[in-house]
Amino acid sequence: GWAAGGGGGARRLCLPRSGRLRPAGIDPRSPEGDSPKKYPRPAHREVQDHAPTIARAQAPAPGYFRHPAGGGYPVRRPPLAGGPRGTHDGPQSTGRRTTLESESDVDVFPPLPLEDWRDTKETLHRFLQIVGKIRLAGSPRSNHWWNVPFHLTGQGVTTRPMGPVRGGDSFCIDFDFVAHRLVVRTLAGRQVSFPLAGRSVADFYRDTVTALVALDIDAEPEHPYPYDLPDARRPFAEDHEHRSYDTAAVTRYWHILSQVDLLLERYAAGFSGKTSPVHHFWHTFDIAVTRFSEREITPPAGADPVTREAYSREVISAGFWFGDDTVPAPAFYSYTAPEPPGLADRPLYPDAARWSEARGSHIALLMYDDARAAADPWDTTLRFLDSAYRAGAELTHWERTRECPGGITDPRLRTSPAAG
């Protein structure tokens, strides 16, 4: 069913086919109750055998660390593929002319039909899961699992600094969606990078682990299998099926992700209570932000420890979903958890928005194409998220004093002409 959850912003709870809430970032057990056998870390001889496939660890070139570590404003009308054709390593997109390639520029919310990049999305999703699981293994646990997801940078997404792990150097892993490379850096200034294009999931897993070994980083996924995907029983190291990487499609994905990140930051600024960072979740391939009340929640009987931590408080979450086989279209969403009675009867803005039911729960949806068709897509989407928030907040009696339009909490400054 529809992935409906945000788990306090650090992870998302989804409604899997079994109907049981499960957390992102934490690996499920097999039906027999045991985790599949852990795939072994490559021996150093294997690392040397594959060393030519990656750039060797070295000191960064001058200016390399100008790469921002926490944000930046995306260009509104960038080139489609991050540069002229032939400038990236690995294969480019196929010769078929798609919606992605047929436009000369992009809007604030450019089109991204799922059918135009489905194969690339499946590959990239698994790339993100591999690195996300390294983040899970290499970072200290944070409330509501906020340590697990990715954050955006001015060129892609990042794990943020991690470690040191068992005495090694601190390190960071970045997806650079301008150069279309994976970059692993250490605090000491050493780095390894390799192209994202032209690799199967098995190649990417091998080269990522090889890069960590080359940098003397003792970290790896504890469970190197896809999470909650159809091939969840196949190790990453054996996946030679998923290998599509269309640079134009990935660039478009990153542009949308960047614009949605900025929009969610604007939305988050209107609430002064506890709020998660804007997170990109590698489990369900979405981006979300969550507002909290201080009201503690009694979890349902039998809830696992991860669910108890993630949903220990009442939340209203908002985000964006890129679509999958179940919901084959991108959409903005919002939900309140636990869901109060009467939520689906509350009005939403605009008229195109609706409440969607999945196994007795409701999520507010504004399809991406409906937002794009609006006269002002940005304002329309913000008003949609506000209307869904208002529906949940009023029914659960959240304090209005925590709302701070424009990010201003001081009453005098709110009425000052200078504040506007």
- Specify the overall morphology: globular
Number of helices: 9
Structural class: alpha+beta
Uncertain segments are: 1-99, 101-106
Radius of gyration: 21 Å
What separation lies between the terminal Cα atoms? 43 Å
Major sheet strand order: 8-9-10-11-13-12
The helix content is 25-40%
Strand content: 15-25%
Give the H and E element order.
EEHHHEEEEEHHEEHEEEEHHH
Put the structure in a nutshell.
This protein has 420 residues and is α+β, with helices and mostly antiparallel strands. It contains nine helices and 13 strands.
What does this entry look like structurally?
- By secondary structure, the chain is of the alpha+beta class.
- Helix content is 26%, strand content 16%.
- The protein has a 6-stranded antiparallel beta sheet with strand order 8-9-10-11-13-12. The protein has a 5-stranded antiparallel beta sheet with strand order 3-4-5-6-7, covered by helices on one side. Strands 1-2 form a two-stranded antiparallel sheet.
- A hairpin with a 4-residue loop joins strand 5 (171-176) and strand 6.
- Helix 1 crosses helix 4.
- The longest helix has 25 residues, at 114-138.
- Mean pLDDT is 78; it is low at 1-99 and 101-106.
Keywords:
420 residues, 6-stranded antiparallel sheet, 5-stranded antiparallel sheet, 13 strands, disordered N terminus
What's the helix and strand layout?
Blueprint: E1 13-14, E2 22-23, H1 44-50, H2 99-102, H3 114-138, E3 151-152, E4 156-158, E5 171-176, E6 181-186, E7 191-195, H4 201-214, H5 247-268, E8 279-281, E9 286-296, H6 305-310, E10 313-321, E11 331-337, E12 354-358, E13 361-367, H7 368-373, H8 377-396, H9 411-415
Antiparallel strand pairs: 1-2, 3-4, 4-5, 5-6, 6-7, 8-9, 9-10, 10-11, 11-13, 12-13
Helix pairs in contact: 1-4, 3-4, 5-8
